[in-house]
Amino acid sequence: MSFREIYGQEHAIDLLNQAVQRDRMPHAWLFTGQANIGKYKTAVALAQKLNCRKCGEDACGECDICFQIAEQNFLDFQVLIPDGKFIKIDQIRKSLNWLHLHPDQAKKRVLILDGAQHLGREAANAFLKTLEEPAPNTLLILIADSSQQLLETIVSRCQQIRFRPLTEEISERILRDTTNLSTARIQLLSSFSMGSVNVNLAERLELMETVQQTAIHWLTTFSAATLEEMLRTCETWAKSKNEEWRLLLDFLETWFRDLTWLFRGLPEEKLINQTVGSDENCISSLRKSGEHFTLQQIFEIFGLIAESRRTIELNANKSLAVESLCLQMYRRVV
Ligand SMILES: [Zn+2]
Questions:
Q1: CA of residue 130 to ligand 1 center, whole Å
Q2: Which pLDDT score is estimated for 277?
Q3: How far is the CA of 12 from the centre of ligand 1 (A)?
Q4: What are the structural domains, with CATH classification, of the chain?
Q5: Dihedral Cα 78, 83, 89, 92, nearest 10 deg
Q6: Do 123 and 154 contact (CB within 8 A), yes or no?
Q7: Are strands 138-144 and 109-114 parallel, antiparallel or unpaired?
Q8: Based on the number of CB atoms within 10 Å of its own CB, is 277 exposed (0-12), middle (13-18) or buried (19 or more)?
Q9: Does position 120 have pLDDT exceeding 70, yes or no?
């Protein structure tokens, strides 16, 4: 992985290149932004660039060091991810000891903390000491969704780069390059991914299509009978391990975003939900569904969706949270 293979994050890569060129590399970077937009890939590409044998403008991606870093098989490169729910104190201690050793072959020893928001309290404090007294020839790269999830004392000792959501064009381009999916399915995937590229979702396309079709049936009729059907389905979804409930929340967000577009008379080609399944046209369904809502109600529904996500993240009863979302939506409108 080299910088030229990362799409849509030119701003971040420019900042990193400038730091290298001007010899102003901080001892710790903090990469923030939503999941699956290239933060980790950029971190690996930076480690390669700093250590590549060819010392070019970008990592060559082919020398033994670039290769070993990509394989996480290089003595001077480590990636730390949560062990269970947290990055634990023992993990941090081991890595920090390693970090303080003299680099074996590298110009810079690089430690990536992927999921830095999961640092436990003790681990965060141990880590803070290293940030205050960094070892020479080392680089730390922390990756998190948002800086608000980290201790302020950690954030203030890192140089932060905010990664941007991907445009639909870019996420579709990445999916075209990395999968063999049809154009319609690529569009569906990129609309569900909302500014990111989640290749794992490709394996779940059928499931996504089922969720989409079930929800659209409900959203276009919005009657007591279809509400009951929807609630029953939600109950089974919340119990299954496939996370249909998450796909449902993602889908509802795209659907109501599209309705606000339609209400404002914006061009139809900008709608996320243009097709259902592989080819069935979706725009007439959107119009039909739009008859049930006002713009004000839609904004309230966005709030309800966000609230359901938070409740579920706090390990609440998924079935109850998703059902109560559907019920609240229904009550608001009818
Ligand atoms: Zn190389």
A1: 28
A2: 57
A3: 21
A4: 3-162 (3.40.50.300), 196-333 (1.20.272)
A5: 0
A6: no
A7: parallel
A8: middle
A9: yes
Measured in angstroms, how far is the CA atom of residue 243 from the centroid of ligand 1?
A: 40
What separation in Å is there between the alpha carbon of 107 and the centre of ligand 1? 13
Cα dihedral across residues 164, 181, 198, 299: positive or negative? positive
Residue 32 is predicted with a pLDDT of 97
Beta-strand pair 138-144/28-32 = parallel
Q: What is the pLDDT of residues 215-259, one digit of tens each?
A: 999 999 989 999 999 999 988 887 787 788 888 998 899 899 999
Residue 18 CA to ligand 1 centre (angstroms): 19
Residue ranges of alpha helices (H) inside 32-167 are: 39-51, 64-70, 89-100, 121-132, 152-155
Q: What is the pLDDT of residues 251-296, one digit of tens each?
A: 899 899 999 999 998 888 778 787 665 556 788 889 999 999 999 9
Give residue 1 CA to ligand 1 midpoint distance, Å: 10
Q: How many Å lie between the centroid of ligand 1 and the Cα of residue 272? A: 40
How much distance in Å is there from the Cα of 78 to the middle of ligand 1? 17
pTM: 0.74
CA of 94 to the centre of ligand 1 (A): 27
The CA 5 to ligand 1 mean position distance, Å, reads 14
- Strand pairing class (280-281; 275-276): antiparallel
How many angstroms is it from 47 CA to the middle of ligand 1? 10
Q: State the Cα–Cα distance between residues 235 and 211, nearest whole angstrom.
A: 13
